[in-house]
Amino acid sequence: MTLAAQAPSRPAGALPGTRGTAPSLRHLGPNWYAAVMGTAIVANAGTALPLQAPGLRGAYAVVWALSALMLVTLLGARTVHWVRHGDQARLHLLDPAVAPFYGCLSMALLAVGAGTLAVGRDVIGAGPALAAAAVLWTAGTLVGLTAAAGIPYLMITRHRIEAGGAAPVWILPLVAPMVSAATGPALMAHLPAGQWRAAMLLGCYAMFGLSLLATLLVLPLVLARLFHHGPLPLALTPTLFLVLGPLGQSTTAVHHLADAAPGVVAAPYAQAMGAFAVLYGVPVMGFALLWLAIASAMVVRAFRRGMGFGMTWWGFTFPVGTCVTGAAALARHTGLTAFAWLAVALFAVVVTAVAVAGTRTGLGLARGELLAPPGPRPAAR
Q1: At a CB cut-off of 8 Å and minimum separation 6, what does 129 contact?
Q2: What whole-number distance in Å separates Cα of residue 93 and Cα of residue 2?
Q3: Cα(184)–Cα(338) distance, rounded to whole angstroms?
Q4: Which of 50, 59, 165, 345 has its Cβ near the most Cβ atoms within 10 Å?
Q5: pLDDT at position 44, please?
Q6: What percentage of the chain has pLDDT greater than the value 70?
Q7: What does pTM read for this prediction?
Q8: Is residue 337 classed exposed, middle or buried when 0-12, 13-18 and 19+ CB atoms within 10 A define those classes?
Q9: 164, 225 in Cβ contact below 8 A?
């Protein structure tokens, strides 16, 4: 299978400019969870910013409520998909263009859960918010660990991928445990002191490590594909932004874990974790900015060559949002104002991207385009 055949938005809807016969849940793929992630990150990233203004927290709560509603609706629709169109659902698992998006299910659960604890408690109360966040984190973590092991297993044993067929979407199931590592520390204070908190802290560090090392194995394959085979097909160009996900999320994770470490592990280890957060986060954020520049240039190139809207546009949202939380954490730990301004600037990009992608998605659903049978495969440039 060539990379040109690996279109993340293909199972969920027709390509721009094509029309199928009729919209159907049969063509609702797991990539739709990216819309939930992208919406939820607005609330999560917003609360991490060093900004205090009247009405902001209320706005974040509205966005969180919207993401929660989207999650419930999509979980119901995907359940119907599995019950009524089980054959298509199984084909999704056997398609290397679609299977990696099962990592998005995990991250959607985790993102909404984090928002529930951050701002949802203002709406539903502290007790229900904590219970919901714990359930969503547990479910998201189990799904994420399953995807991180299961999707690579399927790619090795069942998928057939030609040389040079590496795609940025391969990162999705691998980064899901990193989201668990970044969001788990918020629950740690609600666990009994002692073994429970220590197990949570070190368990999150273990998920940080497994996700980071797995991503470091895949990124060279993606870079080799780009260097040796040229740019991605136009419809897939936004997936280049997915590389930002593990960069921003890992920076966020090490800072959140460092914040939670005092009193949970011995003082020397807690101090080392704090130092590691800065020593790791600054260079990784530097590489994230380099990749952001490269990916943005590739997107401009794709627009000039006629790239139209697709569900891949949601790739502009969540990965950049993780860089917002990472930069905000660096600003808090280093006291450097430049990181705070970087976080605010990136947040503006996220809000704009969510507004555009959300509007285009709504219009596509209203017109019956995004759930229509898929059209032809995208051309390779």
Answers
A1: 116, 117, 120, 121
A2: 17
A3: 27
A4: 165
A5: 96
A6: 92
A7: 0.90
A8: exposed
A9: yes
